[in-house]
Amino acid sequence: MHDLGAGFSYLLKGQRWVARHGKQYGFGLLPGLITLVLYAAALVALALWGEDFVTWATPFADDWSSPWPGLFRGFLTAVLFALALLLSVLTFTAVTLLVGQPFYEALSESVDRDVSPDGTAPVSHLPLYKELWISARDSLRVLARAAVWGVLLFALGFVPVAGQTVVPVLGVFVTGFFLTEELTSVALQRRGVELRDRLALLRSRRTLIWGFGTPLGLAFLVPFVAVFLMPGAVAGATLLARELRGEEIVEAALDEAEGSSR
Question: Does pLDDT of 261 surpass 50?
Fold first, then answer.
């Protein structure tokens, strides 16, 4: 339970840090806004033409007696839209981080310098194009893992009772874990930590990760909230990465951030 509360506290501390650094917060909003417009357009298109797509994909239901074709296709349309929403939550962070790589790298480095005892931050010496390639490659690998979980949870959703109670809760925790992996990758990739080692690091402190990522995943379900929370989420994930790596955090810098935001 201690780790659960600690994870949530890092989420709050990240938001307080960006509240004190308004300029970096403003720059950090831009990638999220761009990504939000793209995702909103895709979801609107799905809402408008999703039913037509389902009808086209299920010609075998044309011969069914009424009202079964409408009920069946309505159910599939709802499931398709629900999966699209889940996929948008899982991928929004990865796409936003990719779009805003230079912004979030600078933000994460600033957090590291602010809370480290010697005022320094780990710096990646890789060229930008290589960092983008590694980030995109690792994001695809993580999304593939998330997709496997998504298919499994979708199948379990048809189990009576458990599919409507336990499975949605599991889905929230799975989403929180993968969101945290994407967010901490900014700081951990800069430290040269490979994807396999990052996942092992996160699995070693699952409760801490859930405390950070689960409430964030729930917040990201609310339209527009993800955009405004992203800069603080990156800042909080940097603090979380330091915790996972056993690096010292100067709490006085965070206390100052809290006092300045009031």
Answer: no
